[in-house]
Amino acid sequence: MAKDIKADEFITGSDVVSKIERIGSLATLGNWAKEMERNGHEFQHDGRGRRIYSEDDMKILEEMNRLLGDRHTLKQAVQVTLGMDDGDGKDQKGDQNKPMVLDHAMQKFIVSQNKDMDDLKKLLTKVAEQNQSYHEENLRLEKKLDELAEQNKQLLEAPKKQGWWKRHFG
Question: What is the pTM of this model?
Answer without folding.
Answer: 0.46
